[in-house]
Amino acid sequence: MARTDHETAAASTPRPPGRLYRAWDSDLAHAFRTSPVALVAGIVAVVIILAAALAPWIAPHDPFDPGSLVLMDGFTPPMTENEFTGNFYLLGTDDQGRDVFSAILYGARLSLFVGFSAVLFAMVLGVTLGLIAGYRGGWVDSLLMRIADVQLTFPSILIALLIFGVARGFIPPGYREAMAIWVLIVAIGLSDWVQYARVVRGATMVEKSKEYVQAARVIGAHPAKILARHILPNVMGPVLVIGTIGLALAIIAEATLSFLGVGVPPTQPSLGTLIRIGQGFLFSGEWWILLFPALALLALALSVNLLGDWLRDALNPRLR
Amino acid sequence: MAEPLLSVRDLVVEFPTRRGTLRAIDRISFDIREGEVLGMVGESGAGKSITGNAIIGLIEPPGRIAGGEILLKGTRIDDLPPEKMRRIRGRRIGMVFQDPLTSLNPLYTVAEQIIETIRTHLGVSEREARERAVALLDRVGIPAARRRIDDYPHHFSGGMRQRVVIALALCAEPELVIADEPTTALDVSVQAQIIDVLKEICAERGAAVMLITHDMGVIAETADRVAVLYAGRMAEIGPVRDVVQDAEHPYTRGLMGSIPTLTHAHDRLTQIPGAMPRLDNIPQGCAFNPRCPEAFDRCRVERPDPIGRGGGRRVACWLYDRAGVKEAGNG
Amino acid sequence: MADALLRVEGLTRYFDVSKPWLNRVIEREERQFLTAVADVSFEIRRGETFALVGESGSGKSTIAKMIVGLLKPSHGRILFDDQAMTGTDGAAMRALRRRFQMIFQDPFASLNPRWHVGDIIAEPMVTFGLARGAEARREVARLLEVVGLSGSDAAKFPHEFSGGQRQRIAIARALSSRPEFIVCDEPTSALDVSVQAQILNLMRDLQDEFGLTYLFISHDLSVVRHMANRIGVLYLGRLAELADGKGLFTNPRHPYSRMLLDAVPDLEMSGRRRKPVEGEIPNPIDPPPGCAFHPRCPYADDRCRREIPQPVRRDGGEVACFGVEEGRI
Predict the structure, then answer these.
(1) Global pTM value
(2) Interface contact flag, A8 B271, Cβ < 8 Å
(3) What are phi and psi of A202, to 5 degrees?
(4) Is residue A22 within 8 angstroms of chain B, CB to CB?
(5) CA distance A172 to A177
(6) A143 within domain boundaries
(7) What ipTM does this complex have?
(8) Which of B219, B243, C193, C222 could in theory staple to B260 by disulfide, Cβ–Cβ 3.0 to 4.6 A?
(9) CB distance C261–B189 less than 8 Å?
(10) pLDDT tens digits, one per residue of A91-129
């Protein structure tokens, strides 16, 4: 039988290293370790996300429990004791004596939940439609891409407002409050699927002409299987980049909608709701009620966005 | 002997990576005489294109020339500032690349590109430059050159485009033309035409050619001398007839045997086991030793330098070291 | 003939290369069609290697793609073991598909970079339900050894291998559905010569071992000379000449075959002066009338400029040339 090329193969990998070591040693991980911006952004994002996820355990107060609120504590400035009760709040309290720090943790939790869910929804929808459009081509492609073009001519926040408004018309008033978060997720997700679809469609058209896809077609593999098992893993790189940047945008979109008063109900305030509440006190001197939620939103959106930008640059040479 | 046109001495090109520095070219030395065609063969990754790029000062950073020198008519050109090197490129050294589209600017007509090059380097009038350009295009075989000179590159077919590139490379009357795989992207029937044009026109103008290719057939028909590269090192250099018909380095011999020919239909082709090592994994001693059927102990420890074999041949192989442990084989 | 494994009859394929509808309307242009393959007929006998040679635009890859079902023919039929492949679907087609496979040109594009080598090789056998689980893994290890790699390579990814090794993996994948017939589309043109020799030798060994029939597509006459029993020479989508392996090289009939042979560089350095080859391949969207080769042919006359020559039997082969037909050449 033919002789082996084992010299090079054997010498290049003396012992297959573990999966963890390979991940640590990968070019991407190396690029992350050596980029100060990515490192700082990563740490900030992880700290905020962890703090938000663990809010019920680490928050000093429960801002959603009306029973625990002490009205006398209202308008306590940050880092000072309340003049009546002597209670101390790290970032002060709002008009109802709610601890701003705890409210931010719970608010970030809600904002992140909405952001992640909306991105996931947009990603699943956009990637699926992009794969189908890119692989099928023809009229299916034309139809989907024209819909995408039309949608792109409107600002996504307008689309989200529109969807939100229409949905409210269908949902009975009694359920509105409970459904608000889900409507918000769908509204932001639907306004954002186009980017995923376009990128995935382009990448799919490149991948489907490659010979490994043809090899699968020669043996009669089902198109759904080719899309899911062959093409999808090879188009996910750019999707993750858009997803990361999209997360920042979704968080801001949620904040914008909540700020406008069409988002989550005030009983369950997100960062946007907190900012809306806070801006009413800005000129009466209680600046902290607005400032700290706004800073939290800024830090979260900025760090996630910087991570996305870095990921895009790091993956770019390999995006072909 | 007269001073060579181009002299490359102990050239080392390195590419730093985060896993260590890769040596793409490891102490290569050769000369090109005036008017001669030197073929440079090797498999992909052997370093033949990098050698060409090093001569014209176009090594992509972070790669760099880490040692040795390159002399053009006795003057060092490897350490020139970019501005001076740019004047040498085009004027004294012309270039023909594999893909004609990378050498031609799609936004300018052929006339604009050739005339500008001629005027920049030779300082003649617009009219004179145009006359020269038309004559040159006519010479490289563009039909109706006077009319077609005002076309854009995309108006030409692949073969015609490569003719234009050859005209562009030669228009400033360089002393040396570096042709890097000039026919690889072309159809078989067009390849022969391009090689003929390149060879004839350079001979007419007395320009030397460094012909970089993986195709031994092209070398056999075109070159005066040939250098065989392996893993960034020179395996063998000598007159083309000697190397093609009576190769001395075991690698060259294996390479020649592995080429199917029209005249002999053997049952099996000679095959060299394995593949060329990656740059981060070059074996100790002779780079070829793990694949060499004639390797002995010394090959695994000590790296052979090219050994003079008379008649202008040099072979980097311990088989031919008279002072060595083993006498020369009869290959 | 009885022992034909594959028969191709009057195979024709057009491609619609028109501009989009709106542009056509605005610029008042007609629809444009490119004839990639025109009326090609040949048969491939069991156990032989049949080669199709041609330059760019000759239609050789289009024919390969139609045979393995990646493209549908515009006209004509493809019969595999006397069963029509055009129009067949469902279970019958599935049974046929198992019996043929394809090896591609670019070993860097033909293996999914995200898959383990073992999964790549197992895919055909799993898809056709030939083996699964531990049995499939054993079979993969065996196939890897058959193509000269090691069984433990199944756990690696394609990027850990060189071009030649990847092509071996692609061959192992092609063998995994235990086919009788393999279409090889320029299997070595992306490889270096020393690696090409390894792959060509391997392919011949496998042919002997498994009794395979090959359709070998190439632009390299020397490689074809080494591999093929019979050869079809294509020019602009039509069959110019069909000859047995030796005949084409000792006694080429069609002027285009002669020209192609003349264009191969002379490694023997016999000093043979080659006839300069004239002209280039015309644009297939707008091919010349009559014989497509006439603008480059030294023997062309008025009839060649008007009529399209049909293949005529000569010395056990076929030649589509009026010059040969009329005895002028």
Answers:
(1) 0.86
(2) no
(3) -60, -50
(4) no
(5) 10
(6) yes
(7) 0.88
(8) C222
(9) no
(10) 777 777 788 888 889 889 999 999 999 999 999 999 999
